[in-house]
Specification:
The protein has 234 residues and is mainly α. The protein is built from 9 helices and 5 strands; from the N terminus they run H-E-E-H-H-H-H-H-H-E-H-H-E-E. The chain has helices at residues 2-6, 45-62, 67-81, 88-102, 113-119, 121-132, 143-185, 192-197, 204-216; strands at 24-27, 33-37, 189-190, 220-223, 230-233. The strands form 2 sheets. Strands 3-5-4 form a 3-stranded antiparallel β-sheet. Helix 2 (45-62) packs antiparallel against helix 3. The radius of gyration is 28 Å and the shape is elongated.
């Protein structure tokens, strides 16, 4: 259904399993094309996807496997099956986002996982290649893909989020310090307009919040209302 909705205006195969076999290949600068992986044949795709979903749902409900390991395992299997003619990578990243939400990891609401993949696409494709070798025989090594998924994609997202929150917090804190410093240097009685004129980089909403807080803790009192109100330092 997600694939159908994503491709309803682009191609006429949205929401349908592939009808012909596909392959994952790489083209080098000299024009040489190398097949990196042959996914599940088209005729076997419906059954492969049914088995994948049945197994995933059972393991998810039982809690036998940590979600942060189960999710990338599912995504690797999905990409090795490559169930659609087009859009498999996009679908995999969208499903990744939704499953992380379901597991309680919502960093993707604030940080673009797609952008992280684009930024690290060489590692993305290399680890997929490493972990897909031997997949058809059940002899593949999940570790390279797990390390990328957790150590590069998810961890990078949380680090980017932490930096962004820290920036916002420090910026807001510095603006609060500016307002308080200006208040200390204003006459004992002042208007909000006088304060705003001396704090051109600070929004009026933040100024009002600071004034209310200072009034609540007893540092300021407000005399009058509206544009004629005066603030008095205690």
């Amino acid at each position: 259904q997600l694939h159908r909705d994503l491709y309803q205006f682009a191609v006429n195969t949205g929401g349908r399993w592939k009808t012909v076999d596909n392959e994952i290949s790489a083209t080098y600068p000299d024009g040489t094309k190398v097949i990196r992986f042959r996914p599940t044949p088209a005729y076997a795709t419906p059954e492969a996807m049914a088995q994948l979903h049945e197994q995933f749902n059972r393991l998810w409900e039982s809690g036998e496997i940590e979600p942060l390991l189960l999710i990338p395992t599912y995504i690797l299997d999905f990409l090795c099956i490559h169930p659609f003619l087009d859009g498999n990578g996009r679908m995999a990243r969208l499903i990744t986002l939704l499953l992380l939400y379901k597991a309680g990891y919502e960093v993707g609401r604030f940080i673009s996982l797609e952008r992280i993949v684009e930024r690290t696409k060489e590692s993305y494709y290399d680890t997929l290649y490493q972990s897909s070798q031997g997949w058809h025989e059940g002899q593949h090594d999940l570790l390279p893909w797990w390390e990328y998924f957790l150590g590069v994609m998810v961890l990078s997202a949380y680090r980017d989020f932490e930096k962004r929150v820290g920036f916002v917090t420090s910026a807001k804190g510095s603006k609060t310090a500016i307002v308080l410093d200006v208040i200390n240097n204003l006459p004992r009685d002042f208007s909000i307009r006088e304060l705003q004129e001396r704090c051109p980089t600070v929004g009026i909403d933040l100024i009002r919040r600071i004034l209310r807080r200072e009034r609540e803790i007893g540092h300021l009192t407000c005399i009058g209302r509206g544009a004629d109100a005066r603030w008095h330092k205690q």
